[in-house]
Design goal:
disordered N terminus, about 210 residues, about 40% helix, GMP Synthetase, Chain A, domain 3, 3-stranded antiparallel beta sheet
């Protein structure tokens, strides 16, 4: 039986194919802010609010020493709400030390990776939460610097910590927003970033070792 319904509701309203395409595009654009799908974001929020256990994630990497200061990590599948999720492609993270620190400089060193993790997580957190508030952002850049004293790492001074003594981060954000919104944007990363939280508040690390065969 032939259907008596129009193939498109827009055609039934007398809209041309080009008008229909424009309407679809406008609807699509209206649900995307800062590259973030607002509809999916709202669906995720609703799902986790209804079932908090869906918010539990476990991320994993497998690290291997190569030589001297060089190591490589393979990113593993992660779990989301108890279900295993595989990345669309494989990721290998390379870390090394510069020549002055006795390495071959094949990659950023671990503390530089830490700065990258902090910058990217603060930026992503800012972008996502800005999108949730309907604030459009055109561009975000940041500059980070960490101060570290080798007297700690080398065991020469027990009063000097091994890690960063302090980290500074400067955000530059471009967009058509008010000064008040800029202040709000600058607070979103520190407020919601998992990496910022892990660094500033600390996180328990359970380490064990076993003999390789």
């Amino acid at each position: 039986m032939a259907s008596c319904l129009p193939s498109s509701p827009n055609k039934a309203a007398g809209l041309s194919t080009s008008d229909e395409g424009k309407n679809v595009m406008q609807t699509k654009l209206s649900t995307i802010t800062n590259g973030v799908d607002i509809t999916r974001m709202k669906e995720t929020i609703t799902a986790v609010k209804a079932a908090p256990e869906l918010g539990s994630f476990r991320f994993r990497i497998q690290n291997r020493w190569i030589d001297a200061g060089e190591t490589r990590s393979e990113v593993q599948p992660f779990t989301a709400g108890g279900k295993e999720v595989r990345h669309n492609s494989g990721f290998t993270l390379v870390a090394d030390e510069p020549d002055v620190l006795l390495g071959s400089d094949h990659g950023a060193n671990p503390v530089e990776h830490l700065l990258h993790a902090l910058a990217s997580c603060v930026t992503t957190s800012t972008i996502y939460h800005a999108a949730a508030r309907g604030i459009a952002v055109e561009q975000v850049e940041s500059t980070l610097e960490g101060v570290l004293d080798l007297n700690g790492f080398l065991g020469l001074n027990p009063n000097v910590r091994n890690g960063y003594q302090n980290i500074t981060m400067k955000l530059r954000i471009k967009g058509d927003f008010t000064d008040e919104q800029l202040r709000e944007l600058s607070s979103l990363g520190p407020q919601f970033s998992p990496v910022y939280d892990s660094i500033t508040r600390g996180v328990p690390v359970a380490l064990s070792a076993e003999r390789m065969k």
